[in-house]
């Protein structure tokens, strides 16, 4: 974890676009998991904390601002450990034995603790899963939760059942090769070239999931775990174990529009929205009824920035423009262009 700590510290201390967290009220999640007693996968306990009531939450500056991690993962129907109305009191008072958690949750809790974070937010455990009232309250806040986190942990397809995997360390290290350069006048020169495997933070199974899109947009820092190596991405840099110094990223425009609610250029924001919506519409959902919910956090954030009303996927003040959507290929004739028989949005909405 030493290289991960170095990336995080470098970003926190040196990157102006992503070093400072938002201090707006309400950005601390309603519930967090206290991982201070998460020793290892076989022993330890994680305790659910209600930050609106709990007076022992470690506050950073006298407000309700708390440093915590988040987790991005693909929902798995085999998971049996959730927070529900029947067990929330036990989760708050007795906690959850870490060996009862799904592997990915247990490893995320331990990773957060090893990186110096006492709390982590995991959707299945921090939202009451059988309460429509709690879901209606918490789901629109998810973008804020991911944005305000110190770090997001993201599990790739190769390690669907967990964050950690056995890896060939040699495959992650930079290496040297000898080569011959052909110079003018028939001259040749022997050189040694430093090479490193390419960064692998681009496509994983998460990049095809609808719920994950806002989890890629909003976090200031993301640590990616896959079968090959650990990699990192923030608003200014992308790095991996094979390229630990990283390469510069130019994500400033998207980053500023989604992380700064004072920016008032409506055209820029709407252009960003349409680009994101085009990407989102290509993604998969386990339940098509989630089509609007899975992007509601982003919509809520942009609604505050725009000062506009968001109705069924459409912006009120840009109604005519927003209604000019169409299927990507109307001549294709596939199911993707046919309106779903089960209601999920008004007929005039792109989400229908």
TrEMBL record:
Residues 68-215 form the Heterokaryon incompatibility domain. InterPro entries: HET. It comes from the Eukaryota. This is HET-domain-containing protein. It comes from Cryphonectria parasitica (strain ATCC 38755 / EP155).
